[in-house]
């Protein structure tokens, strides 16, 4: 059975600023089963949670501040209030450009996972392309796999993995059960260029889904930017994934 489909609400951030409830209602009407918040533009956490409940939307995961240091309690409280299972966060490219920096970054990820687990939550890393670039002869993520504790999970952004020079299906297979969340976007796989609706670019999603097997808990659509109307792309992405049996929706 295909994994349920969610959407990273960062995708519709510009639209949501002026009409958060209306945009989320449109997403529910399309048939998305879940949402992944990343802040609450134009609303509050409490109002957003109430809206999700009214619409029957599950919270697949939430992008929160890294749950360490001064942000620890804020992040844990946010996830707890939302009632989601996964806290998701990450770092910028400068934290992965040497082996020593990768080690320090992984230590932070390990601490984040420990903090999450103490509250009955799970911590997952959201990647961009820079985790898949070569650093001192190997891909950065390969060092990470050796340095991270087993309770650190991945929200693998398959598009960025390909943009960074890797085959996302092979990465998904390599990560196995450590990648329960997949970020799904499509396009030319050139970091400077805008994305497309899923199914209209270069990423081989059937191969990714096959490689992931039963490890995928959520397929999460995310378009950072798009040259076409964003809500049209959100609908087209849903239609492509569900009609091809790659994700399960409500319609």
In short:
The protein is an alpha/beta fold.
What is the count of β-strands?
11
Mean pLDDT: 97
How does the overall form come out from the CA principal axes? globular
Q: Return Rg in Å.
A: 17 Å
Topology at a glance:
Layout: E1 5-8, H1 13-30, E2 34-36, H2 45-55, E3 58-59, E4 62-63, H3 72-82, E5 86-89, H4 99-117, E6 122-126, E7 134-135, E8 138-139, H5 140-147, E9 152-157, H6 158-163, H7 168-175, E10 181-184, H8 205-212, E11 218-221, H9 230-243
Parallel strand pairs: 1-2, 1-11, 2-3, 4-5, 5-6, 6-9, 9-10, 10-11
Antiparallel strand pairs: 7-8
Helix pairs in contact: 1-2, 4-5, 7-8
Give an account of the 3D structure.
There is one protein chain. By secondary structure, the protein is of the alpha/beta class. Helix content is 41%, strand content 15%. It has a nine-stranded parallel sheet. Strands 7-8 form a two-stranded antiparallel ribbon. Helix 4 (99-117) packs across helix 5 (140-147) and helix 7 runs parallel beside helix 8. The longest helix is centred in the middle third of the chain and has 19 residues, at 99-117.
Distinctive features:
251 residues, alpha/beta, 9-stranded parallel sheet, 11 strands, globular
């Amino acid at each position: 059975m295909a994994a349920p489909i969610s959407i990273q609400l960062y995708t519709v951030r510009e639209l949501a600023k002026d009409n958060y409830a209306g945009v989320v209602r449109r997403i529910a009407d399309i048939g998305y089963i879940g949402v992944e918040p990343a802040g609450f533009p134009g609303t509050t956490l409490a109002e957003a949670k109430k809206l999700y409940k009214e619409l029957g939307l599950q919270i697949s995961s939430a992008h929160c501040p890294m749950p360490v240091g001064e942000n620890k309690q804020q992040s844990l409280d946010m996830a707890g209030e939302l009632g989601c299972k996964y806290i998701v966060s990450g770092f910028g490219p400068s934290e992965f450009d040497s082996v020593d920096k990768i080690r320090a970054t992984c230590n932070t990820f390990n601490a984040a996972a420990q903090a999450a687990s103490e509250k009955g939550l799970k911590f997952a890393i959201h990647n961009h392309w820079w985790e898949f670039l070569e650093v001192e002869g190997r891909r950065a993520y390969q060092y990470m796999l050796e340095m991270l504790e087993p309770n650190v999970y991945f929200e693998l952004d398959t598009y960025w993995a390909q943009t960074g020079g890797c085959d996302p299906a092979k990465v998904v297979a390599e990560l196995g059960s450590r990648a329960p969340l997949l970020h799904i976007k499509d396009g030319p796989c050139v970091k400077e260029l805008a994305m497309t609706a899923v199914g209209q670019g270069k990423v081989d999603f059937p191969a990714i889904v096959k490689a992931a097997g039963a490890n995928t808990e959520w397929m999460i659509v995310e378009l950072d930017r798009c040259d076409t109307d964003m809500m049209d792309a959100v609908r087209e992405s849903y239609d492509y994934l569900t009609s091809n049996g790659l994700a399960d929706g409500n319609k």
